């Protein structure tokens, strides 16, 4: 997945308020805090349900507060959002169908000892485990 593709999954220039052309551009955006509009785009596009977003990225009340105050996400929240969206987009790419990929993310997976891939996205280590399984899927090794 390219950085530009990831930026598009986050809502592109319209949601991010800037062009993302490189990993350094994305790092700058994450460190500055992504706009709340990026979160809204992710939910609107169906990458995550609101309840999943609140569990993995930012609690509902905190998001509502940031929106009311016109504030951006923190750098930590922005990093979590970027990580989750990166893995969701990678699943769509590996599986070849967005709806099937989102179902795969929500079902217990034998390769992950019965855990749901989506639940593992709360940490970087868990996200890497899910990405390893997706790599096996892409190479036809199954998961």
Name its key features.
single chain; 143 residues; mainly alpha; 68% helix; 0% strand; globular
How would you explain this protein's 3D organization?
The chain has ten helices and no strands. The protein has helices spanning 3-9, 12-16, 23-32, 36-44, 50-56, 60-69, 75-95, 98-106, 117-120, 124-138. Helix content is 68%, strand content 0%. The protein is mostly helical. α3 (23-32) packs across α7 (75-95) and α7 packs parallel to α10. The radius of gyration is 15 Å and the shape is globular. The model has no long low-confidence stretch (mean pLDDT 95). It has one domain.
Write the layout of secondary structure elements.
Layout: H1 3-9, H2 12-16, H3 23-32, H4 36-44, H5 50-56, H6 60-69, H7 75-95, H8 98-106, H9 117-120, H10 124-138
Helix pairs in contact: 3-7, 7-8, 7-10
- The beta-strand count equals 0
What gross morphology would you assign?
globular
Main sheet?
none
Rounded radius of gyration (Å):
15 Å
Q: How many individual helices?
A: 10
Distance between the termini: 20 Å
> What is the SS-derived class?
mainly alpha
Low-confidence stretches: none
Question: What would you say about this model in short?
Answer:
This protein has 143 residues and is an all-alpha fold.
């Amino acid at each position: 997945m390219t950085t530009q593709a990831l930026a598009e999954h986050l809502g592109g220039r319209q949601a991010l308020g800037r062009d993302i052309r490189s990993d350094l551009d994305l790092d700058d955006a994450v460190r500055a805090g992504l706009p709340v509009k990026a979160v809204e785009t992710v939910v609107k596009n169906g990458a995550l349900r609101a309840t999943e977003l609140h569990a993995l990225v930012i609690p509902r009340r905190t998001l509502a507060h940031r929106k009311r105050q016109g504030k951006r996400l923190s750098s930590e929240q922005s990093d979590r959002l970027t990580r989750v969206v990166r893995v969701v987009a990678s699943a769509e790419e590996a599986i070849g169908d967005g709806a099937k990929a989102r179902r795969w993310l929500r079902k217990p997976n034998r390769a992950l000892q019965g855990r749901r891939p989506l639940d593992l996205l709360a940490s970087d280590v868990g996200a890497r485990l899910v990405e390893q399984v997706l790599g096996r899927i892409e190479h036809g090794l199954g998961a």
